[in-house]
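Example 3.2
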Amino acid sequence: MKIGIYAGTFDPVTNGHLSVLQKAAEVFDLVIIAIAADNNKKTLFTLEERQRLVEESIAQMENVTVETFSGLLVNYAEQKGATALVRGLRAVSDFEYEMQMALFNKDLAHGLETVFFIADVEHSFISSSQVKNIAALGGKIDKYVSPAVEKALAEKYQ
């Protein structure tokens, strides 16, 4: 079974993430969305809230599961028997950082590849940070996130 791990903070999950996920789900037998508990970011949503929002956003996807993890991603991927890490690219500017991370991960876990997917054009500019900024200022975000995320952001910024 080919298992891909799509890891991130997902604070919150956006349609850009879902676009990458849909492509990965067509390639892998199972995709595990791995929500990072340890990160250097100050998140708006708790780990449990992020997990719930991702689960609600992917409810129709049969070969995708959602888990949380802590520690090194490569160790988690090894525990899960993953064949590859899934990463999304929005713009050329993402590539340098993602390439560096892929090389670190490959050095730490020699059999683990990184597979890059490009988000659909209509979602390629979406970032969680910008979605949060727009929501905080009362803007419309329904075309950038799932209804569950839209509602959760509205509640956070009331």
